[in-house]
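Re: weekly structure request thread

Next one in the queue (156 aa):
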Amino acid sequence: MNINLTIIGQAIAFFFFVLFCMKYVWPPLTAALDERKKKIAEGLDAAERAERDLRLAQEKAADDMRASKEEAAAIIEQANKRANQIVEEAKGQAREEANRVKAAAEAEVEQQVNQAKEALRAQVAALAIAGAEKILEAAVDEKAHAQLVDKLAAEL
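Done, posted below.
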């Protein structure tokens, strides 16, 4: 193989081309590649942060949901207890009212019984006087013998 001047010229031209590329072409390309590499790394970091934040938000939401359910259950339980308490109070008040009404009715019945007894005593006294008048065929003075009539009525 002959080394001629063309090959030497091409080698020199290639050498200058490589120098030119190393000085003017490669630095912008490597800078662009480094910048792209930096952006990709930042994007991956942001994605990891977002994923971590999402996980934390989901955990917080689950904790909040659990706490809300517990609070709701406590409120429902408290409402049920209060409802039972109100029912028991109403039953107690109804019993008291029924006892009051019963006592009032018993007092009224007793009062009417006493009035009926007094009315019967007065009628029995009047009948006793009428019977005595007929027996004695004499008029018995009711006012004069009031003590005797009262004694008779008390015995009846």
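The radius of gyration is 61 Å. The first helix runs from residue 5 to 136.
Next request, please.
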